[in-house]
Amino acid sequence: MLKKRIIPCLDIRDGRTVKGVNFVNIRDAGDPVELAAAYAEQGADELVFLDITATIENRKTLANLVERIAAKINIPFTVGGGINTIDDVSVMLKAGADKITINSAAVRNPHLITDIAREFGSQCVVTAIDTKFRGNGWFVHIDGGRTPTELDTLVWAKRAEELGAGEILLTSMNNDGTREGFALSITRETASKLNIPVIASGGAGKMEHFSELFSGTGCSAALAASIFHYGDIKISQLKEYLYNEGVPVRI
Prior knowledge:
By secondary structure, the chain is an alpha/beta fold. It contains 10 helices and 12 strands. An 8-stranded parallel β-barrel has the order 1-4-5-6-7-10-11-12, surrounded by 6 helices. A hairpin with a 4-residue loop joins strand 8 (137-142) and strand 9 (147-152). Helix 2 runs parallel beside helix 3 (86-95) and helix 6 (153-163) packs parallel to helix 7. It is globular. The mean pLDDT is 91.
């Protein structure tokens, strides 16, 4: 049986790790290089780095910071934010990323997914989807959650897979930073319709939320930020808890 992955996320703004609630009310959470090293030491399965203002500021991801983090860790490293071209991907991979994640750029130019997959392999392409429940369904948002679209989340996730995405990073904007638990329904639906791994993000507040996620959905991994950044839960403790709950994890 494939092991479930625990993935801390570094949301980066102005070179610092930050965290908000529902994509707003951003506050400082520490030095990203120090946090990355600590998470690798604690047993994180992977690490995600998201330059959360690169797209709206119309600039590239912070390659130098990516390089400094990559030098401190020995686990798979995914980088996103401001990636719009094959050249951007190449820069990040040379800086030490193992995978890249694209969100707004993929919505605006879906064939970017295919182009990256052809050049570097599907395993390199993580399509991030920021989704929000509005009215009667879950819809994709772009530009760091600032711009709503009429794109149905499930339809877009399936199309991203067909275009060549190797994984989906699904973040519920409704749950993000609330610490009230993951969005189980949309995660379950998305995972059930895809043949590629789904990483669930948004809402982790206690260890029970992770066991609920893994037992109640078909997702492959759980991504969290604030509970790790502020020391509420150590990754090693979480994994021991999950193992005792019967969730297959790497100890």
